[in-house]
Amino acid sequence: MTRPTLLMVVGLIVSSAIAGRADADIIMSAAGLNATLKKMGQLKQQIDAGTKTQRDEALFGLGVEGDALATLINQEVASHGMQERELIDLALSRMKELGLAVTYNREKKKFFYDGAGFEQYLKNAPGGPHAAAAQFKLLSYQFYQSTGGDPVALVEASEAKKRFLARYPRFKENPELDLYLAIDYRDLYRRFRDAHDEASAEKYRRLTRSRYQQIARLYPGTEQASTARQLLRRFDEEIQTTSRHH
């Protein structure tokens, strides 16, 4: 009798972990997790033994799978709490065995993939067909895990977003990234305002307003345009309130 493969063992453990449980609102399932882990295993084999083109594609694919599974875990926790703890723990441990790190950010109360697949893809193929998508994912991780409290880090992050928008002007996720940039500017305005650096605060006040206006103009009919208009109204109200108190 041959020894069972890792994926066979995963299938048995996953099935037994939630055997008999039925839920009409299923987000994470044994079958879905088994399929994802199987695909990750195949991508890992391709990274280890494929041609350069195959390795690059597999690196990006592994990043996509890691990102998607982290998102799925967050959706599961948001809907059901830790009801599926065994399944979540199993997913995290098997991903770790495959070289994918997904960790819990206590401050943000979310799981995040570390983006290593995307980072390695960009090192191997900086001009590759998935370069924009990989870089966007890394910028989004940085944005969502930032506290917005460090002006130096915020300036660096905003400059990285500006470079991306200039390099990939037609990338499909630009409305979202543009919104991240506007929020970076807003947070910089607040930091400099609180530090009584009036010149810098005024600079970022103007940049924030113009960015929100630009998003509404450039991406009409999108969710981001609607959000930008709402955030601009709130920002103007915040400025008025601040002015009255001073």
Class based on secondary structure composition and strand pairing: mainly alpha
Rg from Cα: 22 Å
Number of β-strand runs:
2
Overall mean pLDDT stands at 88
Secondary-structure element order, N to C: HHHHEEHHHHHH
What percent of residues adopt helix (DSSP H or I)? over 70%
What's the main sheet like? 2 strands, antiparallel
Low-confidence stretches: 1-24
For the largest beta sheet, what order do the strands appear in spatially?
Answer: 1-2
Total helical elements = 10
Please report the distance between the alpha carbons of the first and last residues. Answer: 80 Å
Q: What fraction strand? A: under 5%
Shape: globular
When the domains are counted, the total is 2
Describe the protein in words.
There is one protein chain. This protein has 246 residues and is mostly helical. The longest helix has 29 residues. It folds into 2 domains: 145 residues, no CATH class; 100 residues. The N terminus is likely disordered. The protein is built from 10 helices and 2 strands; from the N terminus they run ααααββαααααα. Helices cover 73% and strands 3% of the residues.
Keywords:
single chain; 246 residues; mainly alpha; 2 domains; two-stranded antiparallel sheet; 3% strand; disordered N terminus
Layout of helices and strands, plus pairs?
Blueprint: H1 6-17, H2 30-49, H3 52-80, H4 85-97, E1 102-105, E2 110-113, H5 116-124, H6 131-145, H7 151-167, H8 174-194, H9 198-218, H10 223-245
Antiparallel strand pairs: 1-2
